Amino acid sequence: MGYLGPTLNFATKFWLNFDKTAAHPRVRSIKEEMKMHIRRIGCLFLSLLVVLVIVVSGATAQGIQPSGQKIGLDKKGNAIYQVDANGIKIGFKLIGSGEPLVMIMGTGGTMDHWPQEVIDVLSKNYQLILLDNRGMGYTTANDVAFTYELFADDVIGLLNSLGVKRANVLGFSMGSAITQRLLFEYPQRVNKAIIYATSTDGNKVVKKTFDDPNIMRQVGAATWKTPLDKLPLITNQVMIVIGTADTIVGVESSKTLASAIPGAWLVQFKNATHRLIFEAPAEFAKIVLTFLDIGETVAVK
Question: d(Cα 103, Cα 91) in Å, to the nearest integer?
Fold first, then answer.
C-alpha cells in the first residue's frame, strides 16, 4: 500500500482539478457549443437524407416522360401526344407507373380500343405505352408501303423518342405479328413479350373488307410469314395467348410458336374467340401480370 499511495494521491488530485476545470464557465460554454454543432451536423445530415429520398422517389414515380406535342385528352382525362418518328407523326398515351409495357393493337384498331378493365389492372404495376398504328387514330401515314417490318420500326421510333431502351411488349392480332418482328429484329429492345391471337402465315388469316383505305393497307400488309427456323434463337421470355374458339387465326400457329421458342408459355382460354380480351378482360389481365411479374428463368449455379 505504501507503493500505491502516491499514485492514488496523484490520481485523486488530477480528477479533482479536472472536475474544477470542467465546472469553469468558459469550459461549459465550449462544451455546449460543441454539442450544438453536433446537433446541427446531425440535422443537416438528416435533411440531406430526406432530400435524397424525395429525389429518388420522384424520379421513380415520374417514369417515362412524354415527348412531342400534347394534342388533347381522352375520355378518362389521359393526355394524348404526337411525336415525329420514322417519317410520320405517332399518336400515343402514357398511363400508369412502373416498368414500360408497350401495347400494340390489331388491324383497324386504335389505342382507345383496349378494354378499360385491362388498362386499369395493368397500369397499377406498369407504365403503359399505348400507340396508334400507322394510319390509325392519331398516327399519320405517308406513301411508304405498309409492312409489318415498317410497323415494328414505328414502335422502335416511338421508344427512341421517349428514351426507352427496353420495354415489355403486348401485341394483339396484327400487333402480335409486329411483336414477332420486334423479337427477330430488335430483341435487345424487348424485355418480355406477350403474343396474343397470332399467326405464322398472314395469308391464312381470315380477312375482311373495310371502307377505310388505311385499314385496307393494313390488311394488304398481312402477307407475313414467321421464319420458323429462327424461333429457337429467341432468348426473350415469351408468352403466347390464344382462345380455343378463335376462327380468325386459329390455334395451330400459337402451338407452333410455343413449341419452338425456348421456355415459351402457352395459355389457352377455353371457348374464347379472337375477342378474348373483351370476353374475359379480368382473366386476361391477370395472366399477363402473372407472366410479367414472375421470374421464370432459374439461374444456373
Answer: 13
Give the span between the Cα atoms of 119 and 99, in whole angstroms.
14
Single pTM value for the model: 0.79
- Using the Cα atoms of residue 280, residue 281, residue 282 and residue 284 in order, give the sign of their dihedral: positive
Reading the chain (301 residues) residue by residue, the pLDDT tens digits are: 444 444 445 444 444 454 444 455 554 566 566 666 566 665 555 555 433 433 333 333 358 999 999 999 999 999 999 999 999 999 999 999 999 999 999 999 999 999 999 999 999 999 999 999 999 999 999 999 999 999 999 999 999 999 999 999 999 999 999 999 999 999 999 999 999 999 999 999 999 999 999 999 999 999 989 999 999 999 999 999 999 999 999 999 999 999 999 999 999 999 999 999 999 999 999 999 999 999 888 888 8
Three-state SS string over 61-113 comes to HHCCCCCCEEEEECCCCCEEEEEEECCEEEEEEEECCCEEEEEECCCCCCHHH
